[in-house]
Amino acid sequence: MPSPPHLSGLSRPELEALLVELFVEVAALKQQNSEQREEIARLKGLKGRPKIGPSGMDKGTDPGKREKLLKRRGRGKVTPRVTVEDQVITAAVPPGSRFKGHEPFLVQDLVISVRATCYQRERWIAPDGRTILAPLPEGIDGHFGPELRRFVLMQYHQGQSTLPRLLALLRSVGVSISKRQLLRLLTDNKDAFVAEAQDVLRAGLETSPWVSVDDTGARHAGKNGFCTQIGNDWFTWFGTRSSKSRLNFLDLLRAGYTDYVLDDAAYAYMRDHGLPAALIGRLRDQPETCFANHGAWREHLELLGFTALSTTPDPVQVATEGALWASIQAHQFLCDAVVLSDDAGQFAIGKHALCWVHAERLVHKLDTFTDKHRAAQKRVRGLIWNFYADLKMYQRKPSQRRALSLRARFDRIFRSRTGFATLDRLLARLHANKAELLMVLDRPEIPLHTNGSENDIRCYVTRRKVSAGTRSEIGRDCRDAFLSITKTCDKVGIAVWDYLGSRLRVVGHTLIKPLDHYVRSQIRLA
Fold first, then answer.
1. What are 495-508's pLDDT values in tens digits?
2. Separation between Cα atoms, residue 340 and residue 449, nearest integer Å
3. Is the omega angle on the peptide bond into residue 63 within 30 degrees of 0, that is, cis?
4. Are residues 327 and 393 in the same domain?
5. What digits encode the pLDDT tens for the residues 72-92?
6. Neighbours of 522 (CB within 10 A)
7. CA dihedral in degrees (32, 38, 40, 43; nearest 10)?
8. Distances (CA, A) of 146 to 30, 166, 272, 346, 509
9. Same domain, yes or no, for 324 and 389?
10. What is the pTM of this model?
11. CA-based angle 166:172:174, to the nearest 5?
12. What is the domain range of residue 367?
């Protein structure tokens, strides 16, 4: 019932009667709400949060899957990577037996031993009073040898071991080492490895026709952050920061450079993202076009009055993003490359493509409540699966005629009306991403999904589960660099053990060139 205009004018009995009536109405609403919840749960057929498995679209539409299974090769011959030592074993035979040669039986074994060497360094006094001390052998840097450091780095980063377990393993085989000393082996002299990981990123961004990106949660210095993965079939790079914004992503794409640039690429970005022409004109009218770091760029914006504005979109943010994008282009990064992502907004820059698996997953996970809804969902998923299979076929044999046909077919699928309002809205949303979903028609070399990024970032997730987060900047940089290096080594066909032996100058090590050399070579051959 409507409330009277002045409750203060009601008598006590009238107020009590009104309260009783309201209590009855609230109880009825609670009962109705409870019944509706039970009905929704019954229609869903679920208890609690629904458990929805993966769609399986990518594997289900692979035309060569059956042929690959039929042609699967056997185990093959075992070929050790080390020199095989022959050892003859004699047999006790009765008199009159005939010798028929040897029957080989290959056994591989591992010998783990600890060796301690005390170098007695000659010390001389020169005639001029100088003290001359004999140099240590190559590779010796500190009181722990390069073989031990190689083992520690490989077990921790590629083996995903923890510090306490690695410490217990070393002590159990006879190494006298403390937890602090072990930590120093993992973090000291990191600059060369961090720089090499940075060079890998630069090589990938300069030469790759496409990169796939993803991010995941990360814990650092007691705070939640984010780790961004950038890579493709030839390299992988990880970077952990406190933000997952587009500004952060653009900063990562600069690959260590700190400059801000104003040129046609920057102004085009600003126009595309809604920065008023008057503000762009202010930037154009100034003679400065390159700024060494963030402080110089921020001071420039303050002089032009950008920081005093409170309009939407934020002028400082859009102008900074534009200057970062121009810096990326100025360093010849992503000049003609496609950025492939799962539709996270911060990754939508330059030539952008979307993952079809993530797009179809939205339809797969859609809640349905009636048989009509389920039938519409099943029919649309079937259309998408068939379309996805034809996109795979197009990648193998692209043609202009097939591209036009696929574009028209995309419109028919995602502009259709099913009578299921939620599904229709989802289809309209996916149709709005037509250019990004159909980027493969113009660039057949790019993948249709971001499975590569998800596989790459899995090692980071494992590291996070095993060791939680990092505390220092050194620890964070080492974790990112070594995970980047180990994944890149796997992709270019280099054993991490050999890589570490080369970098630490282990005696008799295999010569491994800088990893960016292999990345560039692999991309040229692709």
1. 999 999 999 999 88
2. 8
3. no
4. no
5. 666 667 777 788 999 999 999
6. 20
7. -130
8. 71, 17, 53, 42, 11
9. no
10. 0.84
11. 110
12. 356-449
